[in-house]
């Protein structure tokens, strides 16, 4: 397997880290990591190695290369277990990403456990993938949804949350970190309070796992979903972690090959965890790539990553604030992940993205799959710069210069 070029070097140095990512040879100042991250050579090599040396399906054949593929595939499951501190690798389900993980829970857990009149609590900060599955479930079952609002800083109104908990919700679902404005939610406290109120709790870790890491036992939730492609892995590989007793009581989400114990004309018995939830041929190379991404992140150290992102975020917030007519959404840097969402007076975010793109700056514009939040903030869209392990101050400087240029054009 490929070796790291820089990850074991201390102290953490983003300039060195960046050299592990071939993408940066393009010269693009990539500021859209909350959307999808870049991949280090370590991940690319791990996937190439699979294709070149042991390309085969997993769990199905007794020949050597398939055994190697299965070993690497299952190796990722163990790496994930370690990364999130789960009790058992049986609780780690491979999915295509956060969206699939949440849909799995809404379907397999929700349809069995949510009844007419039940309350589902979610927050206004959620990504559409942690909204729409619950709206569909509520429409099917007759359950109702209640939303926790945010204050002027884009932080959840906890007094309102606690009032909702008094109504004994069946399910509470919340994001660890908002992708749209970067708010770090007090997830551990919120999960604890929801559990005390008797709710089942899902945490959307799409932004949490890559930027803060997670200890699911410490967090105390029942389900935790995240995506590999936002944490240096490839697209198409994500994880749903769930408490074993809940997963065991749930029906399969998809049915077909691999998720069975025995199939007879009279009926079928299902495989044990985790394969009960992994029907059909899986994204083997991508799962192997995710395992390599986790190794790489562990090599860097999650604490170093969080600290680096905080520094870059602070730098970006200060530099952007110096531009006239620019408004930043969301909380102060102490309670914010590496996301700076902003609007510039007189320039639509899409126009801004087009102009900064001419400067080689990749900046996201839009609703960030959080339309209810945009409506709450009373904006059609925002510009969003988001950072990761490889972001350097020069990327931010280039953004600031490009935004200033857009302001000159629109003046
Ligand atoms: C907070 C959050 N939840 C869910 C998702 C959906 O992730 P995916 O598209 O990888 O399934 C995203 C992606 O932007 C996200 O940021």
Can you offer a commentary on this structure?
It is built from 15 helices and 14 strands. With 411 residues, the chain is an alpha/beta fold. It folds into two domains: 14-37 and 301-410, Aspartate Aminotransferase, domain 1, CATH 3.90.1150.10; 46-298, Aspartate Aminotransferase, domain 2 (3-Layer(aba) Sandwich). The chain has a seven-stranded mixed β-sheet with strand order 2-8-7-6-5-3-4, with helices on both faces. A five-stranded mixed β-sheet has the order 1-13-14-12-11. Strands 9-10 form a two-stranded antiparallel sheet. Strand 5 (171-175), helix 7 and strand 6 (200-204) form a beta-alpha-beta unit. Helix 3 (64-84) crosses helix 11 (284-300), helix 4 (98-113) packs parallel to helix 5 and helix 13 crosses helix 15 (393-410). The chain is globular and about 75 Å long. The model is unreliable at 5-9 (pLDDT under 50). The structure holds pyridoxal-5'-phosphate.
Hetero groups: pyridoxal-5'-phosphate
Shape: globular
Q: Based on the coordinates given, report the CATH architecture of the largest domain.
A: 3-Layer(aba) Sandwich
CATH homologous superfamily placement of the largest domain: Type I PLP-dependent aspartate aminotransferase-like (Major domain)
Low-confidence segments, given as residue ranges, are: 5-9
CATH class of the largest domain: Alpha Beta
Strand portion, in percent?
Answer: 15-25%
Total discrete domains: 2
